[in-house]
Amino acid sequence: MKGALLGLLVVFSVSAYAHWADLAVAEVTVGEKEVRMTLTLPTGLVAFADADRNGRLSPDEVQTYKAELERFLSEKIRLNAGGHWGRLAIGSVNLKTLPERPNITRKSHSTLQLTYTWVEPIGDLNIRYDLFIPDAPNASNLMTLIRGEVVSNTVFTPEKRDFTLNALGKSQTETPNFIVLGMEHILTGYDHLLFLLALLMLGGGLGYLLKVITAFTVAHSITLSLTALNLIHLPGRFIESGIALSIAWVAAENLFRKDATKLQRSRWAVTFLFGLIHGMGFADILREVGIPRHNLLVSLFGFNLGVELGQMLFVVPVFLLLLLLKRIPWEAKVRWAISAATVVAGLYWFVQRAFLSA
């Protein structure tokens, strides 16, 4: 059992940041004969142009590899209007003019300016997006399209690579895509899942489950919305360290608080407090990768709903398994071992995020 728990700890530790690293974001402005796209993407997709291997393309690197970048991206991101493909030109972007994007400071993403031009005015616009990290099922591009006064959002995935914007710029915000994105985010956010697991390891029946999950849901929904709308902002290191500490705290309570019944009655309060921190972490995928603010409310609703659905997909099966576990004589030892491993994972992440991250 100890070996299995250690293996899980290793998997969780390696995968802690995986749920944002494969994402790209783009803001597209459609003009009369020109489409301008500000694209932030994982630098690994264009590693051939990262000459100094620092994880981010500099203006000099963009200029040096301009022809190679244009050739590569013209095959991966194709725009068609009136049966004609747009002609692509690439330039660098001054990061000082962009919203704060903490993930870029982690030297994992680069931002490029893509300009597509046509001879004739643009009518219906079809976008074919094929720029994904290989074998990364969670790879996505969150794209906002602005045409006149109309704003549309879409999410490109390996399973969904085409999008059409009609000549009127009719809004085609795709809430289902953001629901899926929210589900993927929590189901690959192992720190959030480990926090939920620590809550469940205390035991308790359906009443306890409903109280703590409701507290967590209300709390993280509040800060997810406020953070994504840029109404509140805390440094990413503080948020990530707080999430790690919340995991260790709750799991340690499972081990060292003697009166489990009393703890079950009061745990909703600490769950609400920590849920506020987790909500800011959920918003990380929207803020840090740099999703534009246009038409964000609808996208935010879909993303938050996806988080809730993903949460239930994890919590309900685990809760049912724990009910079955009560029939086993060594149930208490299993809970203790899982809580102990969770404390170790939480403390490991806390040290890593608070003191060792760049």
What can you tell me about this protein's structure?
By secondary structure, the chain is of the alpha+beta class. It has helices spanning 2-14, 18-21, 59-64, 66-76, 102-105, 175-187, 190-200, 206-228, 236-256, 260-282, 284-287, 296-325, 331-356, and strands at 23-30, 34-42, 77-81, 84-85, 87-92, 109-117, 125-129, 140-147, 150-156, 162-165. It has two domains: 2-16 and 189-356, no CATH class; 23-172, no CATH class. The chain contains 13 helices and ten strands. The strands form two sheets. Strands 5-6-2-1-8-9 form a six-stranded mixed β-sheet. The chain has a four-stranded antiparallel β-sheet with strand order 4-3-7-10. Helix 7 runs parallel beside helix 9 and helix 7 runs antiparallel to helix 13. The radius of gyration is 23 Å and the shape is elongated. The model is unreliable at 1-6 and 8-17 (pLDDT under 50). The chain crosses the membrane at residues 178-202, 268-286, 298-324, 336-355. It comes from Allomeiothermus silvanus (strain ATCC 700542 / DSM 9946 / NBRC 106475 / NCIMB 13440 / VI-R2) (Thermus silvanus). It holds the Pfam family HupE_UreJ_2. This is HupE/UreJ family protein.
